[in-house]
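Entry:
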Amino acid sequence: MHKPGDVILGGLFEIHYPSVFPELTFTSGPTQLSCQGFEPPGFRHAMTMAFAIEEINRSADLLPNVTLGYSLYDNCATLVIGFSAVLSLASGREEHSLLQEACVGPPPVLGIVGDSFSTFSIAISDVIGLFKLPIVSHLSTCACLSDKRQFPTFFRTVPSDHFQIIGLVHLMKYFDWRWVGIIYSQGVYSEEGTMAFAKEAEKEGICVEYRLPYSKTHVKFPAIVEALRKSSSKVVLLFLSFTKSFLSEIEKYNITGKQCVGSEAWITKTDLASDRRKSILQGAMGFALPQASIPGLGEFLLSFKPSDEPQSAIVKDFWESFFDCSFSPSNTSATCTGTEDLSTVSSDYTDVTHFRPENNVYKAVYLVAYAIHALLQCHNGSNPTTGKSCVTKDQVLEHIKYMNFTTQSGANVFFDENGDSVAQYDLVNWQIKDDGSVEIVNIGQFDTSLPELQKFKLKDNTRIVWGGNSIEVPRSVCREPCPPGTRKAIKKHKPVCCFDCFECPEGTISNETSSPDCLICPPEFWPNEKKDQCLPKPTEYLSYNEIMGALLTGFGCVGIFLSLLTSIIFLTHKETPIVKANNSELSFLLLFSLTLCFLCSLTFIGRPSEWSCMLRHTAFGITFVLCISCVLGKTIVVLMAFRATLPGRNMMKWFGPAQQRLSVLSFTLVQVVICVLWLTTNPPFPRMNMIYYKDKIILECALGSAVGFWAVLGYIGLLALLCFILAFFARKLPDSFNEAKLITFSMLIFCAVWITFIPAYVSSPGKFTVAVETFAILSSAFGLLICIFAPKCYIILIKPEKNRRRAVMGKFVVPHICFCFWF
C-alpha cells in the first residue's frame, strides 16, 4: 500500500500467514514464495499507521506545509520476504526491481515502523543500521534489542521483554507460585524471554520444574505432554509465538488442572479459543499491552473501502477473505462489490472496543513525525534540539533519541538510554462465560514508572477466574513452606524450592516461614512449645504459695507458737522447783533463741532479695550459736554441779550466773564477728541461676564467700559437737533434775540433722536447696525444743505432784549439791 507525500514513512506488518516456500527440484528455477492465510490483526495495524499519517497531515501544528506519505509492506511472517521489503524501503526500489538499474517506485523513506517479530527486527536492524535509518517497532519485545551498541538505530514503542519478565516474576511472587513449568517456542523472542525469566525468578526463590521447547515439527511434543501430565507444578508459563499451533496439538490430550500464564504475544488473542481449548485457557492470566483510546480510529477502520486503495492487491485480499467473495468472476464464491459494510461482521478487525498493539503503531508514527518536525526547525544551520547541523537525513535518528511528546490520544512518549519506552501492562484474565464467549478482563496493572512497592497491583473487588476449575488461588510449590519453629534445609542437587524442614534444636526458635536458620534465645528466655518465639523463662524459688513452702511456713509458725507457749508455761511456773532447778535464766534465753531460730526459717521462704539473702544466713548463724551456747551453758552447769563432790569445794562460784551470761555472750560474739567479716568482704546476694536448668531460672541467694558460709556452719557444728561431748559425759548422773541425757539426745538429733544436711544441700537442685536448709533449721530447732522442754512441760502440766522439792531433789542427791544447783 502506497501513498505519495513530501516525506515517506515505511511500514512492515504481518498481513499474511503462513508463507509457502517453492519446491526446490533443481531442474528448473524456483518460483516466488506465496503468502496465504490472511491475518486481520496485521492488516489492522497497517490501517492504524495510515490513520495516524492522515491525522498528522490534518494537523496545523505538526509538520505544517509537509505532507507525509507511506509505503506499507507485508512480511508474510517470513524473514526473506520481510528482509526484501525493508531493502526496498531503504533503497526506494520496488521488490521486483531490486536488481535492475532503473530507479522506479517511491522515494526512500526517512523511518520504518515495524517489524512485529523480534527475530526479524534483529536481522533487519543489523543491515539497515548501516544506512542510519531509524526503525521503530510496535511489537518486537526481545530484551536483546536494547543493546544500543549492536542496534543503534532500533527503537520501540512496545516495552522490552525485560520488563514483562519482571512483571511475570512479580505475578508469580504475589500469588506465591514458586514451582512453575515453561513451554516456549523456538526463536529469539521466546528463547531469550525464557532464559531471562528463569534468571529473574531464581533471584526471588521461584524455581522452574521443566523448560521445554515447542516447534512446528512436534519433535519434542511427547515430552511436553508427559511433563504436563506428571509434573507437580500447577502453573505453566506459555512463552509462545505459535500459540494456536500448540493449542491445536495439546487439546487432543485432555490435560486439565493447570493454571496457564501467557506472554504478551498471545494473551489477548480471543481467536485462540475453541470448544476443546476452553478448558485449557479458562482462567489464563498474563500481561497485555495497556488499553488505549484513539479517537476516530474505530470509525476509520470500519469505514474503509477497497476504493480507498484501488491499486493495492493486499486490500483486495483482505476484502475477499473478510466477506468470502471475489472481485474476479467465480463460480465458487459471490462477487465482491466493494461496498459491503465492515461493521456487520464480527472479527478481530472490527472489534474497535480495545486498542492495544494499535496504540504502539500510533505512537511509532507520531514519534517519527515529531523527529522530522524537530529536524525541520533549523536556525542558522543547526537544530535547537540536538545542536547539530541540519544537513543529512540521519539526523532523524538523532532527534528520535530526544523525543518527549504527548499524542492526540493522551499517550506520553519518551525513551530511556536503551531506546526503550516506559513499560506499562494490563494484567488480564481469561473468563469464558456459559454461552462459550470469551471475555478478557483487566484485573490489574504493572507500571515500571511507579515506586517499587506500587508497580504491581490488582484492582479492588475484581472477580478472578482460576485455571483448573479452582475456586481459589492454585498452589504451586515443590514443598510447602517450613512453618515457624522449623528451619529450611536445601536438598543437594535439587532446586532451592525443593527442601526439607527440620525442627529447631532445643533452645532455638524460628519466627519466620522457611527460615534458613534457627535463632538462639537470649539467656533469660526459652522457646515455647511451637518454637516460634522466645518467652521469658519461668522463675523458680521457694514460695509461700506452693505446697512445700506453705508446709515449711506452717511448721515454722508452729515452732514459734510452741516456743512462746513453753515460755509462757515456764513463766507462769517460774517459782516451781523444776523450773528453778533447771537454770531458769538459761532456759528462758534458750526459748528466746529457739523462737528466733523458727523465725529465721521464714526468711528462707519467698523471693530472694539483697536484704533477705544477707539476713537469712547471718541470722541463722547467730541465732543457732545463741541457742547452742545456752545448751552448752546448761551442760557445763550440770557437769560442774555434779563434779563438786567434796565438801567445801564450791566449783559453782567459777561458773555462776555472771559467768554463764558471759560464756553465752562470748560464744555468740565470735559468730557475730564471722558474720560481719562475711558481710563486709563478700556478702550473699540474689542471683539468677540459668545453668542448672535450661528452661527455667532459679532465683537463689549466692553465698558470696563460700569460706564465710562454711565458717558460720563450721562454728555451729563445733559448738554442737562440744556440747554433745560434755552432755555425753554427764549422761549417767542422777536423773532427778539432770538434763544431761536430754541434752545428749537433743545434740545427737542436732548433729545428725546437720551432718545429713551437707550432702543434701550440695546435691539438691533449685528451690530444693533452700527447702533442705529450711528443713534442717526447723528439725534441729524442734529437736532442741522437744527433747529439752517437753519432759518438763509434761511434769508441770500433767504430773504436778512431781513438781515438788522433795520429788525434784530425790534420795540420791546430797544436800550441798542441791543447794549449789538451786543457787
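The two ends are 147 Å apart (CA to CA).
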